[in-house]
Amino acid sequence: MSAREEVLARIRSAVGPNPRAETVPRDYGRAAPHPAGSPALLELLTDRLEDYRATVHRTSGAGVADAVAAILTDRLGDRRTVLAAPGVAERVGITPDTGDLAPADLDRVDAVVTGCAVAIAETGTFVLDSSPVSGRRALTLVPDLHICIIDADQVVGSVPEAIARLDPARPLTFVSGPSATSDIELQRVEGVHGPRNLHVVLAADA
Amino acid sequence: MSDARGEHVLLGMPTIPHASTVGHLRGDEPFPDAARRELGKPQLRRNLGAATATIRAKRAQVVGEVDDWEHLREAGRAIKAATMARLDEHLERLEREVTARGGTVHWARDAAEANALVTDLVRHTGEREVVKVKSMATQEIGLNEALEQAGITAHETDLAELIVQLAEDKPSHILVPAIHRNRAEIRELFLRTIPDIDATLTDDPRQLAMAARRYLRERFLTARVAISGANFGVAETGTCSVVESEGNGRMCLTLPDTLITVMGIEKVVPTWADLEVFLQLLPRSSTGERMNPYTSTWSGVTPGDGPQDFHLVLLDNGRTAALADEIGRSALHCIRCSACLNVCPVYERTGGHAYGSVYPGPIGAILSPLLTGVEDNASLPYASSLCGACYDVCPVKIDIPSILVHLRAEHVDAQEQAHRVPTGESLLMRAAARAMSAAPRWVRAQAAARAGRLLGGRRGRISSLPFPLSGWTASRDLPVPPRETFRSWWLRERGSDDGRERS
């Protein structure tokens, strides 16, 4: 008997012939009290992102490119290597990632600019989905400064609302603040292996 | 689908759920002996006391923010229970979906088989080094040691796991494996073990974390094979996930060519929507955060993004034996948050090493014996005061105290059967049952117990009883019996005006 057959047979023997699978109550908060992108959600998202040491820049849809340029100049000065996810490269006027840089090459990139698939206000999270707008996963992992553009209509209230919008067939990364560790005496240190600096450009038209 | 060892020798009946016999699920000594030794380490208790108090407060605050927390807990419990009832179907679905998306699924009956499978997969790549994401399953099966025997070096990349590995130590907490070490110890360790480290390193946690970053960076950028566990595996979409904080998980899951994921069979959940429950329950219960910094999910292989060679190893190693225990099976619902460790008065004093298993604390006290068989881990169900704090904080409502009592009863039954003649414990219990079942006998027994006052020490404690009761006091003090029992006090104070009182 193969390991597969044996493990499955053990399971059937363990649970017996007619196991009852109970119905799962879904009476937790799944409805959306605030529509996506409402001012209350943008406020909450900003507060929660800042609580976990991301820097938030509020701007209009037309102001995104200027906001990104200002962050780059402020953080890196004029001498810098910056890449953008292909889906936002034109919007911010930055060289698109072609997908052929090896990890060691990406390590020499100073900053990266991407969009995202959805953002969750309650938890201060945005989700990258490996689309042209989010970029491949390595792009937002190796460079030390990540600037993520979130458009207001991408901001939902809760985790269930975000899960419903996402496509699990794509590789997803839920990002909530810069990388962190609390492994030494449970004292939180921001910035370990992922980008140590996380900036969010939150774009909303009044 | 493949089977590591077609010639695998079967012991006993093939379809009977097997307890685990290999791996790091049992210590070298019983819990009371190990606990007594650990209690003699004041630094350990100070580190643990401070750390668990901090994390308890953080958890309480972020759980308090969630209005529907109890509804989420109930949903989490129900999803897990429903999954276990049809575990075979969900695993077959997971296998189909992962395979359809370009991954390869393997099955392992036990630790030895899983280790052989993973070793073969790494050998096949020609690599001699792998990077690892923190994973309880691979610790449980002793994968690093198995790889080392095959000449393959496994680099732990989680900061705490790195500390444990460099110190040739054992993890003592599910979430924060180096919780027993303070910053000064870690600084000293890094200076001693990390090559070319800056000698001016201080014990500031930020400096220590940055030293680890520099040390691991080169490994991440050049690694070709990674090994991970999985927090959840979604059957309907073939999606695996890793919940983490530091980004070492993302590095391992993204940069290498080959990814090997070892997942316990109980980690499967039926639907994508189930993650909306667990991604709320886990971070708040675990690190006390609204959401952990990084959660990665992936479904098989994605062209142009991440490893192009993905293997998922589904591990039994005693899980089907736990599943066969109708009362104990809910221990398999555990999502490894470690909230129960942080509230446990026993864990807080003894630390994780006393439990002997990679699963310490209240959940370990039930999970380890369920995986190995209770007679192989007989002292662990007693490593608890049954205070119930673990049940209250468990995000999937595992009734740990009831399972502890159930396993104690199983152990007593097994002892009785093994010895043919009743043990001292079962004789005592029978005598107690006889004394308590008739009022006059009970009064006489209480009068006899008052003689125990003669054994009392200065502070009203009896610390050693004569044989055969010495077994009881070997690890406990006993309060001296009161001068007067409640019943005799009642009779004296109220007996005259209460006609029902007779004795």
Please characterize this protein's 3D structure.
- The complex is a heterodimer of chains A (206) and B (503).
- In chain A, the strands form 3 sheets. In chain A, strands 1-11-6-3-2 form a 5-stranded parallel beta sheet, sandwiched between helices. A 4-stranded mixed beta sheet of chain A has the order 7-4-5-8.
- Chain A has one domain: NagB/RpiA/CoA transferase-like (Rossmann fold, 3-Layer(aba) Sandwich), CATH 3.40.50.10420.
- The N and C termini of chain A lie far apart (66 Å).
- Chain A is built from 6 helices and 11 strands.
- With 206 residues, chain A is an alpha/beta fold.
- In chain A, a hairpin with a 4-residue loop joins strand 4 (118-120) and strand 5 (125-128).
- The radius of gyration of chain A is 21 Å and the shape is globular.
- The longest helix of chain A has 13 residues, at 3-15.
- Chain B is an alpha/beta fold.
- Chain B has 2 domains: 19-319, Rossmann fold (3-Layer(aba) Sandwich); 440-497, no CATH class.
- Chain B is 47% helix and 11% strand.
- Chain B has helices spanning 31-39, 42-64, 69-85, 87-100, 111-125, 136-140, 143-149, 159-166, 183-193, 205-222, 248-254, 275-286, 319-323, 339-343, 345-350, 361-372, 389-393, 400-419, 424-436, 439-450, 470-473, 486-494, and strands at residues 2-3, 104-108, 129-132, 153-156, 225-228, 232-234, 239-244, 258-264, 268-269, 294-299, 309-315, 461-462, 478-479.
- In chain B, helix 16 (361-372) runs parallel beside helix 18 (400-419).
- At the A-B interface, helix 1, helix 6, strand 8 and strand 9 of A face helix 2, helix 3, helix 4, strand 2 and helix 8 of B.
- Strand 8 of chain A pairs antiparallel with strand 10 of chain B.
